[in-house]
Amino acid sequence: MLKGHQSWVFQNRPMITATGVTGGPFEANGNLAKDFDLLFEDLWMGQESYEKAHRILMEEAIKIALNKGNLEKEQIQFLFAGDLINQITPTSFAARTMQIPYFGLFGACSTSMEGLALASFVINYQGAKNVLTGASSHNAAVEKQFRYPTEYGSQKPPTAQWTVTGAGVALVQPNEPGANHPVTTSATIGKVIDMGLSDPFNMGGAMAPAAADTIIAHFRDLQLDPSHYDLIVTGDLGRVGHDTAFELINKSGLELKRKQFQDCGILIYKDDQPVQSGASGAACSATVLYGHLLNEMKKGTYKRILLVATGALLSPLSFQQKETIPCIAHAVAIEMNV
Amino acid sequence: MASKQKNTTPQQQRYQALQQKHEKKRPLLKNCIRAFFVGGLICTVGQAISYFYIYFFDFTEQSVGNPTVATMVFLSMLLTGFGIYDRLGQFAGAGSAVPVTGFGNAVISAAIEHRTEGFVLGVGGNMFKLAGSVLLFGVFAAFVVALIRTLLSMWGVL
Amino acid sequence: MRNTYRAMAIAGILLLSGCNVDQQGKDSQLALVKTTNPKPIVTDGQRTPTWVEEIKREVSSLPELYDVAVVKGQEGTLVVYKVKHLHRFKMKQIEKDVTSFLEKKHPKEKFTVSSDYKIFLEAVRLDEKMKSPKFPKKKAEKRFKEIVKMTEDTK
To answer: What domains are there in chain A, each with its CATH number?
Structure first.
């Protein structure tokens, strides 16, 4: 049901019944390694190219989610997923393998919440019984496309971010009262915001206003107060963008406490890992939400969270042509079923 | 870094000012010191190699340049292949990019990266993706300098 | 990864030590690093004429230079020197000056002037070899010609 200007309220409370989270070697050394279902020892994952390895990440995550949900792939009606590679081939090729009717999404790093919002919407209105949604990224494949070759010795500035290798997939099903699963309650779809920043090594700074705009719109549309949520988590702003977004939100008059405002890009890696400002990539918010955050919710650490995945909608061509970086953010509210 | 386009709205300018406050700057002095020492170290290795060729082979100071450069590029290719050079690059910045080893690294890293697209379209087509502009502008600059020199000596200035 | 570093270090040591079997005098081993100041030599093994010794003294007195080696062959004289570090930008000019200075003083002699380390090293090596009485004079002359030829690439 539409509420306010750009938000949906899911009154039937679609349920996230199972998740599958895969990661690479760098994530295995990270802060949240225990929340991954499957970690690969090496970036190649036994494939001959990074793009194929990228596909494997997604396929394995889907298989794990199906396994945990006790479903066969034929029972899934739709798959909402995407990634960062040109023409989102890794996800489309994974969809070819799985033979699930498929919506390919591109929202850069905000794909995870774009997919979850759409999946929840479809389930909420009985458009399907079982829907999968997810996002993935592969460090080497993304670096190859957007930046320099992986082995090229260029010095990254402190605002640069590290692309997560991994995939996070969630199985969304209609609500069953009493089941101990997280449910999605509302979603806010963001608009594209461009504050005129053009440095591809400072995505956090470019994306912060989009995150702030979506968060402010969410509380305005739903007429809520930030204290409604135990945790408000941004997708991959990194340290630079996260501080900026915090200031923007507080300036708008919303009373957000520092402790309840976190960022997936800061949570996922340890402080001593050489990631400069933090993590990024479509898999960043997907793996942290479907792995770590949902696990914590099931343990009872958090009751209600708002996840705001942010995406920088640039291409390697657009930044070489000196275009600024337009950014987007989508928010989905998740709480435990009661 | 804010864009230098002049047609930014006041709102964008306000945000960019706010963002600047949170943006971490590159530690310029630290980077310079690191670049100085690592660059110097690489050049010391190069000097040692050229002395090696002078001592044990018939190369004079003038002609030793070519084998020394070839050896340094070969070493940087090995380090690139073992995945060490990119970490050195993050530490040293210009110190590892400016010497000829940085050129070797730019070529071989692109070649490794695009091996999966095959030898012709992948390795061949992309090998000079980064180093190509160095070659082009290097050759062009050399041409311009040579032209100026020729003209000057024709007019009897030199 | 640590093993790779170790293997590379060992390979490096082997490479350096393996090439050092060629027996050399102490002076030529360090000729590039320290001042060797070799005595002027003549390839026919005779006593060095005073005018050759004078060349060495005169060239050494130039303030931009240090460490001068002079070798007199049958057809010419080789003068090699090291240029002080701060004057290395003017090397070409110095070479010209030294040549014209020598040619003015000894118009009949053919001079080869060089500031190349390699030529200097070879001059010192030749000097060391000639110290042994077994070293044939013909070989010395031949090597001298080779060195002079080598200077041609450096021009």
So the answer is: 12-173 (3.40.47.40), 182-336 (3.40.47.40)
Six-digit token pair at C131? 């110290």
In C, which residues are within 8 Å of B55 by CB distance?
Answer: 32, 121
Task: Count CA atoms within 13 Å of residue A31 on its CB side.
Answer: 19
Backbone angles phi, psi at B26, to 5 degrees: -65, 135
Residues in chain C within 8 Å Cβ distance of B57: none
The confidence band for C107, taking pLDDT boundaries of 50, 70 and 90, is: confident
- Rounded to a whole number of angstroms, the distance between the first and last alpha carbons of chain B is 46
Residues of B in contact with C153 (CB under 8 A): 60, 62-63
CB contact under 8 Å between B90 and A155, yes or no, is yes
pLDDT the model gives residue A164:
96
Residue with tokens 């079982």: A130
Q: Is the pLDDT of residue B146 over 70?
A: yes
**Which chain A residues contact residue B97 at CB under 8 A?**
153-155
Helices (H), A69-138: 89-98, 111-124
- Contact list in B for residue C16 (CB cut-off 8 A) is 52
Instruction: Look at residues A140, A36, A134, A27 and name the one whose alpha carbon lies nearest to residue A91.
Output: A134
Q: What is the pLDDT of residues C33-61, one digit of tens each?
A: 777 777 787 877 666 778 888 888 888 88
A243 touches chain B (CB under 8 A): yes
The C-alpha atoms of residue A282 and residue A274 are separated, in whole angstroms, by: 19
Q: What is the pLDDT of residue C49?
A: 76
Query: Does C11 score more than 90 pLDDT?
Result: no
Residue in chain B nearest A147 by alpha carbon = B130
Q: Quick check: B150 pLDDT over 60?
A: yes
Task: Give ∠ CA A142-A328-A200 in degrees, rounded to 5.
Answer: 45
Q: Mark which residues 266-305 of A lie under 8 Å from B by CB.
A: 274, 277
The Cα of B2 is separated from the nearest Cα of chain C by a number of Å equal to 40
Predicted ipTM? 0.83
Q: Is C22 on the interface with B (CB under 8 A)?
A: yes
All structural domains of chain C, each given as residue ranges with its CATH number in brackets, are 23-154 (3.30.300)
Strands A161-163, A278-280: pairing kind: parallel
What are the average pLDDT values for consecutive 10-residue runs of chain A, which has 338 residues? Answer: 94 96 95 95 93 96 96 95 95 96 95 97 96 96 89 89 96 93 96 92 94 96 94 94 94 91 94 91 96 95 95 92 94 92
The beta-carbon neighbor of B60 closest among C16, C22, C119 is C119
- The total of other beta-carbon atoms located within 10 Å of residue A262's CB is 17
pLDDT at C66: 86
Question: Does residue B1 register a pLDDT over 60?
Answer: no
Of A152, A197, A248, the CB nearest to B16: A197
Q: How far is B69 from chain A (nearest CA, A)?
A: 19
Task: Burial-class residue B141 by CB neighbours within 10 Å (0-12, 13-18, 19+).
Answer: exposed
Q: How confident is the model at residue C75 (pLDDT cuts 50, 70, 90)?
A: confident
User: Is there an interface between C and A (3+ Cβ pairs < 8 A)?
Assistant: no
Looking at chain C, which residue has its C-alpha nearest residue B65?
Answer: C154
